[in-house]
Amino acid sequence: MDLSHGDSLDSMEGVPQVRAYQLDTMISIVLRLGVSIAAITVVAGYLLYLSHYPGHAPALGSFRMPPIMHHRTGLLGLVQASVARHSGRDIIDLGLMMLVVTPVVRVAFSVVVYLYEGDYRFVWITLVVLTILLLAMSGV
Questions:
Q1: Partner of 88 for a Cys bridge, out of 24, 48, 99, 100, CB 3.0 to 4.6 A?
Q2: How many CB atoms lie within 10 A of CB 54?
Q3: How many structural domains comprise the chain?
Q4: Which of 15-19, 32-36, 49-53, 54-58 has the highest mean predicted lDDT (pLDDT)?
Q5: Are 31 and 110 in contact (CB under 8 A)?
């Protein structure tokens, strides 16, 4: 593959110009929606935290992502345990995890787009990337 003529792996060559723009727009909507939901979750967790500790503003720099790789059940088990505790800090962690998962959803959405467009080479490449991401998040 010769990339010296301005082509890129994301060029969507062969896709009509209007259609390519629509697909790019849909992918950007997926990213914006994921980031927005994550931000709302973080704010909700912060408000819940403040409701349990009135007058006490936590040091936001002290919030840390839980070590996913050391959790036996992976990301899903960590999210379930976090939400079950109903603490503001855990809801903030959930929002941060949602922020981490947003690009993974974008990659999964890209698989669907490439399938729809019949670009099977990029389907396979994107499936490999998605598999690596999911394995890393599962703690394997």
A1: 48
A2: 6
A3: 1
A4: 32-36
A5: no
